[in-house]
Amino acid sequence: MLIDWFTVAAQLVNFLILVWLLRRFLYQPVLKAIEERERKIAGELEHAATAEQEASREQAEWKRKNEEFENRRAEMLRVAAAEVEQTRSGLLTDARKEYETLHTRLQESLSNEQRELEQETIRTISNEVFALTGKILSELADASLEEKIVEAFCRRLQMAGEDEIADMRSAMTEQKIRPVVRSRFEFGPEERLKIEQTVKSRFDLNAPLSFETSAEGNAGIELCMNGRCISWTFGTAIDSLRNATRKPDLHDDEDTALQQLR
C-alpha cells in the first residue's frame, strides 16, 4: 500500500492550522475568562475573609462595649441605690429630728399652758381665799385679813435663812433708795409700824421703808431691794399645800402650810 505523503503533509498542515486557530480564537479567550473568573473569585473570597474579620472585630468590639455598658449600668444602679438609701436615711433623720423638735415644742407648750393655768388657778384661788378669809375674819374676829397677812409676813422675815438675810443686807447697803414693801392692800399705821420694826430688827436697818400698793400678783406682801425680794403670798402657801400632796409625809407639810395661813 502506497502512502500519499502530500496528503499526509496537507492534513498535518491543516491540523496545525486548526490547532493554531483553536488556540488563538478559542482556548486563549476561554483560559483568559477562566483566569479572570478565578481572580474574581479569589478577590471575592479575600473580600469575604476581610469582611468576616471585620465582622468578628466589630462583634468583639460590640461585646466589649456591651460588657462595659453592663458594668457601668450595674455601677450606676449601685451608686443610685446607695444615694437613694442615703437620701432615705437623711429624710428619716430629718423627719425624726423634726418630730422630736415638734414633740419638744408641744411638751414645752403644754408645760407652759399648764404652768399658766396653775398660776391663773392660784391667782383665782388666792383672790377667792383673800376675799373669803377677809369676810370670815371680819365676821368672826376682831382681827382683819390684812393684820393676819402682816403677821404671816413678819413670821416669814423672822424665819428667813442667813443667806437671804445677808443677800438683802448687801442689797440695802449698796443702794441709797428706800427698800420697798409692796402689797395689794393699803397698810394701816399699825401694820406699817410692825413691818418697820421687824425689818429693822432683822436686817439692822435704820432707813425708812417705802410702802406701795399693787393690784398685780398674788395676795400677800413682799420686801424688795435692788431686784432681790423676800415675800409671803397666798400663792406660796398654796404651793406649799400642793407640794405637800406630792410627799409621803403629807400631814406634816399640810400642817406647816396651814400654819403659814394662820
List keywords for this structure.
single chain, four-stranded mixed sheet, 77% helix, alpha+beta, 262 residues
Output the structural class.
alpha+beta
Count of beta strands: 4
- C-alpha geometry: rod-shaped
The termini sit apart by 187 Å
Rounded mean pLDDT is 77
The helicity comes to: over 70%
Name the assembly state: single chain
Q: pLDDT below 50 for ≥5 consecutive residues: which ranges?
A: 137-142, 247-254
Alpha plus pi helix count: 6
Order of helices and strands: HHHEHEEEHH
Radius of gyration: 61 Å
In order across it, which strands form the biggest sheet? 2-1-3-4
- Fraction in beta strands: 5-15%
Major sheet summary line: 4 strands, mixed
How would you portray this structure in words?
Strands 2-1-3-4 form a 4-stranded mixed beta sheet. With 262 residues, the chain is an alpha+beta fold. The protein has a domain at 143-261. The protein is built from 6 helices and 4 strands, in the order αααβαβββαα.
Helices and strands in order:
Layout: H1 5-140, H2 145-158, H3 162-174, E1 180-183, H4 189-203, E2 210-213, E3 220-225, E4 228-233, H5 234-244, H6 250-261
Parallel strand pairs: 1-2
Antiparallel strand pairs: 1-3, 3-4
Briefly summarize what is shown.
The chain contains six helices and four strands, in the order H-H-H-E-H-E-E-E-H-H.
